[in-house]
Design goal:
Chain lengths: ~200, ~200, ~200, ~200
Amino acid sequence: MDGTAAAPARTRGRPRSARADTAILAATRALLAERGWADLTIAEVAARAGVAKTTLYRRWPGKADLVVDAMAELFSRLEVADRGSMLHDALAAVGQYVDLLQLPETQAALLALAAEADRDPSLRAKVRSQVIDPQRRLVYEAWERACARGEVEGETDVDLIFDMICGTLVHRILIKGEPVDEAYLTRFVSVLLAGLAQLRMSGGI
Amino acid sequence: MDGTAAAPARTRGRPRSARADTAILAATRALLAERGWADLTIAEVAARAGVAKTTLYRRWPGKADLVVDAMAELFSRLEVADRGSMLHDALAAVGQYVDLLQLPETQAALLALAAEADRDPSLRAKVRSQVIDPQRRLVYEAWERACARGEVEGETDVDLIFDMICGTLVHRILIKGEPVDEAYLTRFVSVLLAGLAQLRMSGGI
Amino acid sequence: MDGTAAAPARTRGRPRSARADTAILAATRALLAERGWADLTIAEVAARAGVAKTTLYRRWPGKADLVVDAMAELFSRLEVADRGSMLHDALAAVGQYVDLLQLPETQAALLALAAEADRDPSLRAKVRSQVIDPQRRLVYEAWERACARGEVEGETDVDLIFDMICGTLVHRILIKGEPVDEAYLTRFVSVLLAGLAQLRMSGGI
Amino acid sequence: MDGTAAAPARTRGRPRSARADTAILAATRALLAERGWADLTIAEVAARAGVAKTTLYRRWPGKADLVVDAMAELFSRLEVADRGSMLHDALAAVGQYVDLLQLPETQAALLALAAEADRDPSLRAKVRSQVIDPQRRLVYEAWERACARGEVEGETDVDLIFDMICGTLVHRILIKGEPVDEAYLTRFVSVLLAGLAQLRMSGGI
DNA sequence: CAGTAATCGAGACGGTACGTCGTGTCTTATA
DNA sequence: TATAAGACACGACGTACCGTCTCGATTACTG
């Protein structure tokens, strides 16, 4: 725990430009929003970032890995403070998901990344750790708080709840391409909490 | 006057080969399963189908449109007969979804199609009518039967239920790439029906 | 010598349309003039002639053979009546060549046909009999008349003279793409006849 | 300041491979000889040269431009030293033309290039400067020497003489596809010089 | 005057080459 | 050693023509 954990810092030759990284990731997000996944080209990202292709390839092996890192910056901001009750925690989490899934960058990237990852285990691992897990954290922590409050109890499967929350919203927003309004969210959370509440009576799921 | 209003009967020139269509769609599904979406090439589909590239392009403008039609044949087979109760109807529907989502063709194609459709309204319409709607029918019809049986009542939002069912499974199987077992399905249907049952008490969602 | 020498005239079934032949050859010449050799397509010839591709292919095996026949109609009109002297016969023949070589059809077709014929003996034979020989006849007949008049005598090589006349004009008009004016023609015929006249003195070539 | 005014010295990025140029042009000549003009494909040239198609297209816009440059290397070698008299200069020049026109590369390319150039002014300019002019130089220089020797005099039209020499040989060898033997050449040069000699008597052409 | 057979327009078909685009690697000179 | 610039090998793309084929519909001779 000395801080610079990895700290290889082999400082022979010219050091890598930190500005380049920032510019490349920003350009990637901008072009994802403008052009979508299929029409996003490495060459154009480099050009937009004011960087040579070489510089980009020295950092990321290809388009998918680049986009994972670009999107990771957005997903790492997900955070839900304690809202006092499971209901309000749920509403807050769902709200954050919706905001994120409605960004054009996300629309362009998330399903495409998942599709690419189907055949590529190393990519799948990156998507998992940088995109999926940050989302799961919200559900996990809210559930912990609900347990602590005594709102739920018993053996539970947080992953099922996570799939139900994110899956429903992904299906609605990304797969079907339809917007979500307040009414939809209210009903969704209502059915969801009703289901979870029932569990308490029947002794856990 | 039975409904085949179109009556094309365009008898000018050599008619299109029905065998070609069949062979192309079969080759597409086979190669999707073998190679995945990204490594699926039009040229190889044509070669596998024993057909010239031109013949394929005369029917479909590109990879995505071809794959929609190829997958449509699988999704059109979705069907759930009356199982006697909402619980059994739900289990049957979920079972069909799971079987379909676990096919390698589906793993390769579904998310990729949804991703491509993001920027292409005409593709989105095709995906909607040939892939999404056939899935929705199962939920819709099961819900109608449940209403007829008196298991549920009141104004409802079938689309929300549909998003919850398919979204959850898509998230689990396709996005996270994890398998579903009996225990997962049991818990899932249990939470779901608990949520829906609660609605009856509270007078609809 | 029964007249209809070949006379296969197997008259079973619908006879071929004579109008089609005419229309196809005319369309070929028109499109040669408009588009040149490389951009002349069989499909467009057929369309312009108001005829199906099948109809065209039933008569000619390919572009080159079609164009030979189309051009043959122009070259078959070459004719030089007796002008009374070798000088005037030569001027008349050269004038006819120049007129023909300056037609856009000829510019488009003649060199291309000769180039195609390089690898195709059967095409070469057709070009020879339908394009080259009709040109050669002018020189041959004029030379015969000159002999009869006593303007020349001795063993001669009409083919050399033919090469010199047509070759010079082809090089000027088709290969270099430069126009010929009166002055050029006068000097050309002057040098040519001077050379031939010299032969008489030296006893034939 | 020796004349290399252009001084490109564009030292940005990886320089173009000189080996690629050489290999492409050599492959072009080889395949011209093997396959002829019509069956020469860019893809095969690239493959034979061990080069990607892109590399070829970066240098030449199409088949015709490539072939002009490939042939230019052959035509640039034309050279006739002073043979002491117009007769011997003429024989030497004609011999060089004949050797060049009888190469299979030339048979395949020259007429095809001239035909293509018919519709393409920029191609015509290239053919002119890289194929026609190098041939013309032989006639021009021989004529200059003949003037210096006093063998000819007066205003002359070198281009007419050039057309007569090259045109005759092109017509014989390329258009009619017939070989030239010693007898033909002797008669040809004899008639030609007789014609030119006559000019001296009559005071120029 | 019905039968028969080759033609016709139309357009789908298998095939080949095209010229372009994107990828990820490389080779320069410069920093 | 990293960088900008750009050439490079590779492979897929979607298009264009080719020459063949399969249709239904004509159009003449033939029996």
